[in-house]
Write a structure and sequence with these properties.
- 39% of the residues lie in helices and 15% in strands.
- The chain has helices at 26-39, 53-63, 86-97, 117-130, 143-153, 171-180, 201-210, 214-224, 236-243, 252-259; strands spanning 5-7, 13-15, 19-20, 43-45, 71-76, 102-107, 133-139, 159-163, 183-187, 228-229.
- The strands form 2 sheets. It has an 8-stranded parallel beta sheet with strand order 3-4-5-6-7-8-9-10.
- The N and C termini lie far apart (39 Å).
- The protein binds NADPH dihydro-nicotinamide-adenine-dinucleotide phosphate.
- The site of NADPH dihydro-nicotinamide-adenine-dinucleotide phosphate has 27 residues, from helix 9.
């Protein structure tokens, strides 16, 4: 199965479906990421703060898959934001991953209270120029944070990775980003299991109509909305199931019914006020 790719605003290609490893136990990460690579995933989303970059790196090394066939994202943690600290953060991540570059490096949260995301992003422009990362972007940025980056650095981030699932569809932010060429990545794409997404009638009706699971319907909804998505699972059957989403297509009516579930319901922190 070949996963569709999207072309980022810097010309690099990204597989639209990947595998997320938030809350994957570091001791289990090599085994679980190996299962994902075996299932066909070629895009892994990790972060320094997940504590499992070593396991991701070991699975990649053990897979024997050529480096240029795997898209790897990691993220700079909030305490490492700053002109003098960002370089140490990416060097540590690369060392843990056992890689000489990542494909995408993100500022994990804006933390507007710190007021360091502009200088951090400027450092990341240098990392890109040096080849430590192919692409640079941000995560959990709201429109004013993005606007400030554009105004003060002149560089358009390739990606904004944001909480996005049917109850929190982020339409306004996506509409702001799209004309700028900022691609959207969905985190918590299955709602992190924190509400009964898989019991919603719009989801169960589509699952029944296509003979697939509710999770597969929701992943398909992300893909057909044009966003990049990397569901997490530590369960072998679900790892395989979540990748098996290219044998059916949701109708316009099914997409519209799932779109109608949007009620501005976050399951995670608000980036404007988060202080971790
Ligand atoms: P998800 O929305 O992907 O939900 C994961 C949960 O769904 C787990 O409990 C998992 O269970 C369950 N699940 C997975 N597949 C299925 C299935 N087929 N059927 C039923 N349940 C299923 O949440 P995440 O927060 O993990 O988001 C995905 C990725 O996004 C993260 O792994 C991370 O890479 C990224 N992320 C980024 C953030 C950021 O701030 N930038 C914040 C949060 C996440 P189980 O594992 O037991 O199978």
């Amino acid at each position: 199965m070949t996963v569709p790719t999207l072309t980022l605003n810097d010309g690099h290609a990204i597989p639209q479906l990947g595998f997320g490893v938030f809350q994957v136990d570091p001791a289990e990460t090599e085994r679980i990421v190996s299962a994902a690579l075996e299932a066909g995933y070629r895009h892994i989303d990790t972060a320094a703060v997940y504590g499992n970059e070593e396991g991701v790196g070991r699975a990649i090394a053990a897979s024997g898959i050529p480096r240029d066939e795997i898209f790897v994202t990691t993220k700079l943690w909030n305490g490492d934001q700053g002109r003098d600290t960002a370089r140490g953060a990416i060097e540590t991540s690369l060392e843990k991953l056992g890689l000489d570059h990542v494909n995408l490096y993100l500022i994990h949260w804006p933390r507007p209270d710190l007021d360091r995301y502009v200088e951090t992003f400027q450092q990341m422009e240098a990392f890109k120029a040096e080849g430590l990362t192919h692409s640079i972007g941000v995560s959990n940025f709201h429109q004013p944070h993005l606007q400030r980056l554009l105004d003060e650095t002149g560089t358009v981030p390739a990606i904004n990775q944001i909480e996005l699932h049917p109850a929190f569809a982020q339409r306004a932010l996506r509409e702001f980003q799209e004309p700028l060429g900022i691609h959207t990545e969905s985190w918590g794409p299955l709602g992190q299991g924190k509400y009964d997404l898989f019991g919603e009638k719009a989801v169960t009706d589509a699952a029944e109509a296509h003979g697939v699971t509710p999770a597969q319907v929701v992943i398909r909804w992300h893909l057909q909305n044009g966003v990049i998505v990397f569901p997490k699972s530590s369960t072998p059957e679900r790892i395989v199931q979540n990748f098996d989403v290219f044998g059916f297509e949701l109708t316009g009516d099914e997409i519209a019914a799932i779109d109608a579930l949007d009620r501005g319901q976050r399951v995670g922190a608000d980036p404007d006020t988060a202080t971790f």
